[in-house]
Fold this sequence. Notes:
This is Aprataxin and PNK-like factor PBZ domain-containing protein. The protein is mostly helical. It has 3 domains: 61 residues, no CATH class; 188 residues, no CATH class; 112 residues, no CATH class. The chain is 50% helix and 0% strand.
Amino acid sequence: xxxxxxxxxxxxxxxxxxxxxxxxxxxxxxxxxxxxxxxxxxxxxxxxxxxxxxxxxxxxxxxxxxxxxxxxxxxxxxxxxxxxxxxxxxxxxxxxxxxxxxxxxxxxxxxxxxxxxxxxxxxxxxxxxxxxxxxxxxxxxxxxxxxxxxxxxxxxxxxxxxxxxxxxxxxxxxxxxxxxxxxxxxxxxxxxxxxxxxxxxxxxxxxxxxxxxxxxxxxxxxxxxxxxxxxxxxxxxxxxxxxxxxxxxxxxxxxxxxxxxxxxxxxxxxxxxxxxxxxxxxxxxxxxxxxxxxxxxxxxxxxxxxxxxxxxxxxxxxxxxxxxxxxxxxxxxxxxxxxxxxxxxxxxxxxxxxxxxxxxxxxxxxxxxxxxxxxxxxxxxxxxxxxxxxxxxxxxxxxxxxxxxxxxxxxxxxxxxxxxxxxx
Length: 424
């Protein structure tokens, strides 16, 4: 006997088609909007609420839904400092398939952060040309599973869990005992995963560590390999899914070991690309910088590091330093680096804005043009540029005599040797 089609009180739809349509909606906002469009559609949803909600949850999160659900349910139940065998398993979605309103709210909140982190991961680890995720389904699944497992670790064995386990009135012996027990529990948690799964967690953790450590100056080199210790990692210990907020805050700098073999990424786009200028065979692909990823260089730049890219002593110019640093704060990296190409010197006549540059070539380009760019910004502001100092950016007097710094322009090439002190 064929399938039975259940009609609705409508001339153009039936209940089975509406149910199928609801199951394919991408998120819960769309689901809420759709079921409120008509009473007939709402009634269909009311006949199949659990299965529709489960389907939409899968559409929202993807194949990592079991890991996501395990995390939020353990967190919401406050299962702190429990042996891994006493935690809810990744099969809890089969044992308890009904999603509560708390489950749904938590899934929506964390999935947004995880998806944004995936796009950032893809941009830095797979395809530097696009800021949105270019990961394949398999790559995306591995990344998201690792992220949710790390989030579970932070919820169950991280900072909040430790604060609940160690009271404010605990003596040192009790604290030492609790810390030793925590170490055992954390190791047991990681032993529950396979070697490939641990490699995925390690690589994602290394990526997040790189995002968090952006902020130690303008970055033009890859971070040296680090020793991985999951039970002591700060990123894992806190809330890893909140790292996207750190990135958006603009206080980080990219220290990423992007040249290492990656367990999550199956194919890196442009893997064998080289620097457009020096053609170095040691710096390739994800360590190259161009218009599509300049914005990752810095958000609010560490001011002392930007000043170090200036030639000579002009970064300490008493008359202009404050304005220069303020301008650096206001100018996004992509706007600044792109703007430098408007002031190219003859030595860089063959360089193009679309070039992919290695860290060293990019650093050289910025250093050779940053002072010229700044002088251009002063002209645009309407400043009257005074005569050039003979010693240009190499002048030392500009750093300790305000009158001299104001009287002459030092954002220029020297026409004489190193500057002696002056009384101007």
